[in-house]
Amino acid sequence: MAVKHELENSLLLDDDGRTRRTGTLWSCIAHIITAVIGSGVLSLAWSVAQLGWIAGPVAMLCFAIVTYVSVVLLSDCYRYPDPVTGTRNYSYMDAVRVNLGKTQTCLCGLFQYLFMYGICTAYVITTSTSMSAIRRSNCYHEKGHNAPCEYVYTPYMLIFGAVQIVTSQIPDFHSIEWLSVLAAIMSFAYSLIGFGLGLATVIENGMIKGSITGAPAATRAKKLWLVFEALGDIAYAYPYALILFEIQDTLKSPPPENKTMKKASMIALFLTTLFYLLCGCFGYAAFGNSTPGNLLTGLGFYEPYWLIDFANACIVLHLVGGYQLFSQPVFTFVERWSSKKFPNSGFLNNFYSIKLPLLPSFHINIFRICFRTAYVVSTTVIATVSLTSTKFWGY
């Protein structure tokens, strides 16, 4: 009986004693696409407009290559010292710790989690922009394109924050696979819509707009600033290297996790770069020097309004998953650190089983509820204040 029990445990647990991982190539691709393709894909047309027909596409390809090389190098650091049989590094900070030491770990961890926190705050703003764009699109359809259709963003931020308070109670990164799949589907949907509307506009115009040097600026200094801003937007469109280890830690083996990660990254980056080029180039070809900052929320397109509404709804659903993808590593770090620091605290470590009618039982932790709720509230408040102050100062 003892031998049988040990055999059952070996089938349920991985080599590090944790629950056996079940992630596959396709779930890994879904995570990567959710992390990489953000609503920023719709602003790439503006970036191409600043760089021109040669530099714009070349810049996208260069950043894709740099990202893939970074991923190949990082994926071999998941296990240490051997990339196949070594000890697992569960996060970016763990890999820094074993390779570079404690001091660099603190610095890298600080910048990594601040970056993730900033992304989550930006997602709150972007979501409210997309939700507001749905109302404006309907308003323009009913009252004309010159109608004063402006709405306050704050209620939409609060709605998104309330949704994130609920979804943030998902236990860990391993449990959001379904959310990443949904988000990946949504990202493909609104990217295809952006590409399709750009192509339709080019056909309607009967010409390809734009130039080799891009949109002109009042001064050389202004042009240089816009070029660097465009490069920054393109670089920001490939942000998933910092959560690579969390994604790789969901993969089952064999085959070795680093091989699956490299293959998934190649497929995902090929698909995302293809969509980037299609949306960026056809958006620029459609509008030329007057390309809006965002093809959908900037209302570069007005009709068909129902398709614009659907695309913006897809952006909102995608950002629900994207927010969790960048929040879960922060949640995990804080909760594990707190548990190790105060191992005897019931507030931190005790879990309680809850059973609601028609729903499966689940476990709750008081600290998890409090911390994750406070985290979501803080990003929502900062997003609201920053957007309000920006409008107040007229930017």
From TrEMBL:
It is a multi-pass membrane protein. The chain crosses the membrane at residues 25-46, 52-74, 178-203, 223-245, 266-285. GO terms for biological process: auxin-activated signaling pathway. The keyword Hydrolase does not apply. Signal peptide: none annotated. InterPro entries: AA_transpt_TM. Keywords: Amino-acid transport, Auxin signaling pathway, Membrane, Symport, Transmembrane, Transmembrane helix, Transport. One of its GO terms (cellular component) is membrane. The keyword Membrane applies. It is found in: Endomembrane system. PANTHER family: OS05G0424000 PROTEIN-RELATED (PTHR48017). Belongs to the amino acid/polyamine transporter 2 family. Amino acid/auxin permease (AAAP) (TC 2.A.18.1) subfamily. Carrier protein involved in proton-driven auxin influx. Mediates the formation of auxin gradient from developing leaves (site of auxin biosynthesis) to tips by contributing to the loading of auxin in vascular tissues and facilitating acropetal (base to tip) auxin transport within inner tissues of the root apex, and basipetal (tip to base) auxin transport within outer tissues of the root apex. May be involved in lateral roots and nodules formation. This is Amino acid transporter transmembrane domain-containing protein.
